[in-house]
UniProtKB/TrEMBL annotation:
Species classification: Bacteria, Pseudomonadati, Pseudomonadota, Gammaproteobacteria, Moraxellales
Top-level taxonomic group: Bacteria
Keyword Transmembrane helix listed: yes
Name by which UniProt lists this protein: Uncharacterized protein
UniProt source species: Acinetobacter celticus
Sorted UniProt keywords: Membrane, Transmembrane, Transmembrane helix
Membrane-spanning intervals of the chain: 9-28, 48-70, 77-96, 102-127
Length: 136
C-alpha cells in the first residue's frame, strides 16, 4: 500500500476551489447599486471574467508543476508565479472603485493569496528543507 504524502499542489488546488466558490457565491446574489440604491443582478459575463482572472495564478501554477523545469529551478518558477500574482493583484486593484461584491471578494482572495505565497509558503519550504537536512 502506498503512503499518501502531502504536496503543496493539493493545497493550491483546494484554495483555488474555495476561492472560486467564494466569488461565485457573491456573483450569484443581487447587490445594491452604488448610485441608484436599487438591487441589481450581477452580470454573468463579468462574474465569469472575475473567475477567470482569479484562476490565472492557479492555472499557471498547475502547468508549472507538470513541466520538468519545476524540479530543476524552483526559484525561477517561484519568481514567475510571484510576477503572475502581482499582475493579478494589480488588475484587481485597478477595478476596485465602485466594484460589485464579487470583485471585492476577488480582491480579498487575491490578498489572501499574496499572504500565502509570500509568507506562509516560504516558511513551509524552509521548514521542510531544514527538516530534511537534519534527518541526513
Amino acid at each position: 500500500m502506498k503512503k499518501l504524502t502531502f504536496r503543496p499542489i493539493y493545497l493550491l488546488n483546494a484554495l483555488w476551489l474555495i476561492g472560486l466558490m467564494h466569488i461565485l457565491y457573491y456573483g450569484l446574489r443581487p447587490y445594491r447599486h452604488y448610485r441608484y440604491e436599487d438591487r441589481v443582478q450581477p452580470d454573468t459575463q463579468a462574474v465569469i471574467l472575475t473567475l477567470g482572472l482569479f484562476s490565472l495564478f492557479f492555472i499557471v501554477g498547475n502547468i508549472i508543476q507538470l513541466i520538468p523545469i519545476w524540479k530543476k529551478s524552483r526559484y525561477q518558477c517561484y519568481i514567475f508565479l510571484s510576477a503572475v500574482l502581482i499582475f493579478q493583484t494589480l488588475i484587481a486593484f485597478m477595478g476596485a472603485m465602485h466594484a460589485p461584491p464579487y470583485w471585492a471578494t476577488f480582491i480579498i482572495n487575491g490578498l489572501f493569496l499574496l499572504f500565502i505565497h509570500f509568507l506562509a509558503f516560504p516558511i513551509w519550504a524552509l521548514y521542510h528543507t531544514y527538516k530534511n537536512t537534519a534527518q541526513k
